[in-house]
Queue: 2 jobs
Job 1
Amino acid sequence: MTTILRTKNLHKHFGGVLAVNDVNAEFKANRLRSIIGPNGAGKTTFINVITGKLPASSGAVLFQDRDITNSPAHRLVRLGICRTFQITSIFMGLTVFENIRIAAQSEMGGSFRILSAKHSLKSVNKKTWEILDRLGLKDKAKVPSNNLAHGDQRLLEVAMALAGDPKILFLDEPTAGMSPAETEHIAQLIKGLTETVAVVLVEHDMDVVMSISDEITVLNQGSIIAEGPPKAIQDNAQVKEAYLGNA
Amino acid sequence: MHDQDAKKILEIEDLHTYYGRSHIIQGLSMDVKRLEAVSILGRNGVGKTTTLRSILGLTPARKGKIRIDGQETTRWPPHRVVRKGIGYVPAERHIFPGITVEENLRLAAKPTSDAEAWSTEKIYEHFPVLKARNRQDGSTLSGGEQQMLAIGRALMGNPMIMLLDEPSQGLAPLLVYEVIQPILILCVQSGLTLLLVEQNYRMALDVASRHYLMGIKGKIGQTATSEELKADSEIIKKHLSV
C-alpha cells in the first residue's frame, strides 16, 4: 500500500516540555488511522506540526517522499494535505452550496472577477454537487449554513476539506457535540472517505474509533506507545496503563 | 423541603450543556450529599470539566436544573455560585501571577465568624511547603506546589462543597500519592464535601467513596462505590480504558 505521508523522528517542544517526542508515523492511502491518547498526549500538537500550523523543533515530515517540514499551511493544502478543526470553521452567512463552492473554486483556480460568466463556473459547480451528494447534503444545498443543525455544520466542514482534493485528510474530533444518531451517520461517511483519501482521525468517542479505524496510533506524553488494529490496541497492556494511570 | 433532598449539597437534574451548537453534555443527573466525597471518572473528552463549568456558571446549562444546598442556581453567574459556597480547583491551577503565595490565599478569604474557618495559618499547618514559600510569587512554584496552593486557595473560601478538576494532572505519581491524595483525604475526614473529577481512578478510589462513571457526552454509564470498583476491576476497564 502506498505511503502518503510519514514523519521521521519528529520533535516539538514548548520550552522544556516535549509535546511531540521522536514520532515516526506512517499514513497510507485508503486507510483510516486514528490517533488517540490521554489528555496532553500531544495529539493536536502532532497534527498541527504536520499541517503547518506549528513549526517542528526537529525531525521531518515527508509527503510522498518529499520533505515538506515547516511548509506553510496554504502550500500544504495545495499539495493535498487538508484538515478540519475542533471548532466549527465555516462561513455562517453563506449557503451550504456556496461554502463548498468557495473551497472548490480556490482549488480549481480561475478568475475571481465578480462579473465572470456563470458558465465558467460549470466545472466548479459540478464538483460542488458531487461533494454534496457524497456527504448526503444535497437536499440542504440552499440552506444558509447558520441554520444547519450542528451535525450538518460539522459535515459541511468535511465537505469543504474534500473540495480541496486532499490526498490526506486530518479530522479533529468530528463527532464532538453530536447526537448519537448524527455520530453514527458521520462515522459511516468518514469511513467512506477512505475510498479516495487517507484519513487521520483524532476522536474521543472510543466506539467510533474502534468501529471505523483500520489502524490506531496511541500517543502518551508525546511518544507513540502502541500502534495496530483496534483489537490489538484494546488488548495492549501499555495502552491500558496510559489510560488507567500508573500506580 | 423533602427530607432526603435536604441532605443533598449538590443536585444535577437532566443537565444539557452546549458550546455554541455543540451538544457536550446530553442529559446528566447526579448528586452529592453533605460530607460525602464523590468522583466523576471518565476518559478525556467525555465532558467532566464541562460539567464542573456548568455547576459554576462558567458555561451555563441550556437545559436541566442545578441545585446547591436546595436552592436552584442553574442560571446564576459564577461569582454568585462561588459566594453560595462552592470552592473550585481548576485543572490548570490558575494561580494569580505577580502576587505572593500568601496574597493568593488571602485574596480568596471569605469573611466569617466561624472559629473553625480556614485561615492562612491553618492552611500552612496542612501545607508547610506553602509557608516556606509564602513571600514568593505564586506563579514561580513547582506544579505540585501550585496544586497545593490552588487547593488552599479554594479552602480559604470555606466552601460548602469543593470541586476539583483532575488534581493529579501533570504531576509525578509520587507527588500525587504522597502529597495531594493525603491532603484530600484529610479534607474529607475533617468534614469537607467534595466532588472530584479524575481520569486517575486509583487516587479517586481512595479519596471518594461513591463514583459516577462517565461516558462520551456526559452519559453516566454506571455508579459504584469504591469497594465495588476495587472488587471488580472490569468496571474501571470498561469505562476508562480503550
Note: The first strand of chain B starts at residue 8 and ends at 19.
Job 2
Amino acid sequence: MPAKKSTQLTLARSGGVAGIRPPPKALDTAALPAAAARHIEELLEKADFFALPAELPERTQGADNFQHSLTVRHANGREHTVTFSEASASEALRELKRLVRDQSKA
Amino acid sequence: MKPKKPIARRVTPGALVGCPFCSIIPAHMMRGLAQNGEEKQRSRALSTLLGSHRLRGQRDMLGALGAVALMTPAGVKRRTIYDAQQGSSLPGKLVRGEGGSKGKDVNVKEAYDYSGDVYDFYSTVFGRNSVDDRGMRLDSTVHFREDPTEPFDNAFWNGTQMIYGDGDGTTFGRFTKCLDVIGHELTHGVTQYEAGLEYHGQPGALNESFSDVFGSLVKQWKLKQAADKADWLIGAGLLAKGVHGVALRSMKAPGTAYDDPAFGGKDPQPGHMKDYVKLANTNAGDNGGVHINSGIPNHAFFLVATKLGGNAWGAPGKIWYDALCNRIRSKATFKDAALATVASAISLFGATSPEMKAVKAAWQEVGVL
C-alpha cells in the first residue's frame, strides 16, 4: 500500500501583553480521516494560502495584539508561512487555525 | 517638564481620533447619529457638530439635540465600558458610562475603576488630561474574544481603545485584574500621542518599556509605595493557579517572572545589553522581541528609582515622562532614550544633580551607555 499523502500544519503565536510564546501546535493530515484531510486541502485552496504574503497587513494600529503564524508543508513539496492577526485573516484561514488548534488537543 | 496646558472650557473632540469617517459624513447624518445613534456614535457625532465651523456657536441647536449631558468639558474623566459578550465585535454593548451604576460584573468594575486610577495618576502627577492630553474618552471593552471558540488570554490597545479577555483560567485569569496591566495598555495610547515610538526593534522595546514603567508607577502611586517597597512586577496575580511564576515581567530582575512549559519555558527577558535577544523584525518574531528586550530599559528605570529612593513617580517618573513627551522620537534606539533621559534630568534637576548622575549610572549599568 502506498504511503498516505501528508500535509503538515504548524501553528505558533507571538505578541500579546504577556509576550509569551506558547508551544506550537501541529497537525498532520495523514493522521486524519480522508474527509477531514480533504477539508483542509479545500481550505488551503480557498484561503489561497500559498499566494498569501508572509505577513498580512494589519487593519488597526496599536500594541500587544496577538500574531499567529501558520506554516504549511504541503504533500506536493511546497512550504509557506503566513503571519496574521485574527482580524486580518480570511474566514478560511481562521478555520485552518482553529482546526490545527483543536486537533492538537487530542 | 511638559508645559501644562490650560484647561479649556470647551467640548473636546477627542473621540474623533482614529475616526476616519467623521469628517466625511454630512452634517445632517451627524445630527441623526447625535439624536438616534448609540452613545459612542452620539458622542462622536456631537463632537463633530460642535467642532464644525458652520455650526459653531449655535447654542440653541444643542438644546434641540437633547444631548447636553454629553458635553463634558476637557479636564474631566470620561470612561465608557463595553461588553463584547465573548465575541470579537467592537466596541460591543455599552454597559457603563461615566458615573454609571456599579452592577455586578467584576470585569466591568475593574476596567472602570482602574482606567479611572490611570486617568487620575496622569492628571495628578503629570498634569496630563487623558491619553491624548485633550480629554480623550477612555473606552474599554471587556469579555472580548478574537475567536469566539477560544478564551482570550490577552489585553491590548488597538489604537483607539483598550480590549480585555477573560483568560482561559488555566494559564491566565481575567486581564482586567491588575491595575498595572491597565496602566500598561493606556500608556500605549500616551506613547502613540507623544513619542510615537514604532512598534519594532529598539523603538518597539522602548514603547513596551514605557508601558511597563508607567503601568508600575500607577500601581505604586495608588498603593502609596516608595521604590524600595514596590514589587516591580508587571501583572502580579494575573497568572492562574498552578502556573510556575509570579507575573508577566520583573523590572527588578528581568528574566525571573516565570518558568513554565505552558509559557514556552523561562521568562526570556534580558536586563543587560550583553544578553540582548536578536529576533526577526517580523510579526512572528514579536517585531524583534519588543516584549523581550524591554527588560533592559525596564531595569534601567528600576535602578534609577532605587538609587534615588523615595517615590518612583517623583523625580524618576518626571524624568521619564519628560523624555517621552519632549525628547524621544519615533525611531529612538536605547541609546537615544538614555541620552534623552539624561537631558531631561539635566533640564529638570541640573547638570550635576544626583538625579542626572543616577540616570547616567543606570544606563551604564545595563550596558546602554
Note: The longest strand of chain B covers residues 79-87.
